[in-house]
């Protein structure tokens, strides 16, 4: 069996190692450059590879192709593979049949990283032998090749779910759905929503789907679709006989005739959206039979996720917050919603079809100045130009932070929450967040 892998990054190299271990003839092809450390691993393992090209003769003879999530279906090589009827799948689909571990899969437009990290923290603190993978951390396939975990918590993007056929998590979570990556879904929101719900398409009555019952798109989907999985909703406003909710400042969870309660003030994560993330993760912990005391302790000591509403420093009584991971409007909505001081907002980057009007009421209420950090800021300026007193354009992070310091006064917050992808000026959102933190430290 010939396995061709498109993309020589973490998921590609991990799949190559697992494929070779399982007896496939493996070839890795990357249209860009393969990083030195990955190249070395391929060479040590005797895996054939190429970079900066896709040689059709070496690719179109595949029995199965694993495509890295970053490569769109519209790319010429993928189109040719599909025309030939060759299976093009994701790493998750390829790897899952090689493990008997319990799989917890987490998707959503926002909150999935925090929910994934918190779920992993809850299970690991309870002494479970649990791996973390998918969209974050070490490749899922690679971890299976090393064969060391009894369960996995996987963060799954819609791109990864697009490439599944038989994959099914025992426990699935959909944190929420809001328009994102529409450029990859023919600018049709319903296509993107359907992609997220692929997480439950193979689930049976033995499995569970945990979801946000306050989410409009999720509720709409349920009007015309069903899943066999047992449903566990969570909500900030509704109360359930089976599910998770907030009542009188207490988080309450009822699952399989068992109850769990905890005062929300003892939960380390702050903000309404994080209460939802905590309810989702705690629902998993309850399904995995984790002791109540362990859950309480883990929820009270969880540190949060880097680049997600991360407090950097307080300088001259101005708090600087790094929310570089906010790459869409909905994520920035949560960030602005959780501000309770006048805010200098750093925003901008590569727009994925954003509607900034959704932020209008929050910007009027909370934002005193806007700093546009992107190559094309026209849309942001058009929407908010008349709403805030100060609007400035900059083209690098040092200028953005220096400007923010000038515009802020005691008691204010400077918030980097770009609502956009980062590829115009930065390598990725981590690079953007790290540059912000460094620039703040240099003030």
From TrEMBL:
Span of domain Mur ligase C-terminal: 307-420
Ligand binding (ATP): 108-114
This protein's encoding gene: murD
EC number from the UniProt entry: 6.3.2.9
UniProt main location, coarse: cytoplasm
UniProt xrefs under InterPro entries: Mur-like_cat_sf, Mur_ligase_C, Mur_ligase_C_dom_sf, Mur_ligase_cen, MurD
Reported function: Cell wall formation. Catalyzes the addition of glutamate to the nucleotide precursor UDP-N-acetylmuramoyl-L-alanine (UMA).
Protein name, entry field: UDP-N-acetylmuramoylalanine--D-glutamate ligase
């Amino acid at each position: 069996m010939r396995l061709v892998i498109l993309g020589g990054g973490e998921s590609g190299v991990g799949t190559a190692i697992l494929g070779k271990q399982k007896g496939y003839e493996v070839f890795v092809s990357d249209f860009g450059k393969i990083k030195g450390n990955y190249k070395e691993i391929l060479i040590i393992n005797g895996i054939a590879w190429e970079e900066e090209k896709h040689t059709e003769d070496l690719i179109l003879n595949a029995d199965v192709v694993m495509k890295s999530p970053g490569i769109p279906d519209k790319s010429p090589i993928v189109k040719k593979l599909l025309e030939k009827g060759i299976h093009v799948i994701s790493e998750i689909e390829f790897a899952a049949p090689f493990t008997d571990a319990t799989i917890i899969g987490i998707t959503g437009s926002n909150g999935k990283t925090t929910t994934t990290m918190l779920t992993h923290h809850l299970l690991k603190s309870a002494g479970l032998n649990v791996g973390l993978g998918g969209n974050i951390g070490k490749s899922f396939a690679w971890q299976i090749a090393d064969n060391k975990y009894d369960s996995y918590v996987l963060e799954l993007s819609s791109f990864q779910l697009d490439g599944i056929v038989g994959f099914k998590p025992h426990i699935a979570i959909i944190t929420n759905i809001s328009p994102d990556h529409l450029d990859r879904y023919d600018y049709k929101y319903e296509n993107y929503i359907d992609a997220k719900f692929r997480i439950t398409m193979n689930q049976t009555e033995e499995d569970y789907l945990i979801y946000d019952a306050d989410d409009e798109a999720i509720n709409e989907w349920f009007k015309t679709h069903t899943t066999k999985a047992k449903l566990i909703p969570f909500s900030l406003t509704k109360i359930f006989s089976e599910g998770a909710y907030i009542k009188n400042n207490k988080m309450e969870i009822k699952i399989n005739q068992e109850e769990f309660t905890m005062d929300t003030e003892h939960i380390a994560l702050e903000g309404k959206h994080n209460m939802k993330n905590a309810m989702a993760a705690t629902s998993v912990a309850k399904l995995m039979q984790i002791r109540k005391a362990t859950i309480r302790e883990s929820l009270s000591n969880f540190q949060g996720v880097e680049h997600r509403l991360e407090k950097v420093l307080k300088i001259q009584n101005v708090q600087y917050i790094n929310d570089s991971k906010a790459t869409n409007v909905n994520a920035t909505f949560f960030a602005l919603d959780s501000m309770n001081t006048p805010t200098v907002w750093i925003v901008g980057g590569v727009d994925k079809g954003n509607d900034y009007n959704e932020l209008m009421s929050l910007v009027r209420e909370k934002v005193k100045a806007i700093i546009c950090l992107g190559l094309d800021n026209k849309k942001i300026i058009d929407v908010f130009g008349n709403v805030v007193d100060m609007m400035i354009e900059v083209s690098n992070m040092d200028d953005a932070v220096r400007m923010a310091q000038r515009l802020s006064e005691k008691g204010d917050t400077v918030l980097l929450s770009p609502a956009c992808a980062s590829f115009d000026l930065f390598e990725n959102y981590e690079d953007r967040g790290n540059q912000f933190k460094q620039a703040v430290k240099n003030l």
